[in-house]
Amino acid sequence: MTSWITICDTCKRDDWDAESGITDGEALAALIEAEVAAQIPTQGADAPVKTRRVSCLMGCSHGCNIAVQSAGKLAYTLGRFEASAEDASAIVSYAVKHAATENGQVPYREWPQGVKGHFVTRHPPLPATSE
What we know:
alpha+beta; Glutaredoxin; DUF1636; Metal-binding protein
């Protein structure tokens, strides 16, 4: 099942350079998208990890923010990232591990070092509807 990395593209860190023309979230999104392409060269309907950008995850005090989500699995919001290749690589590596689990819970010992200390929230999966 595909795990989605949802990236807030409006995030601005406290030291954001307004003259750069792009937000820190946009810069991080571009790095994550490039890292997904590098780590998962075959994209398509069955890709284990995909990305999407959204405007505002409402975690401004934790910027830059991302969420890792998949249907029927635990979902996580992570924040306090920099727009760096190292952070993008750790995020994608974690999402690959999330995709490989049955319930979305990656054992702590398997977390990439770059995501440790960045978890903000965990959400249980939505209940299955029987309507």
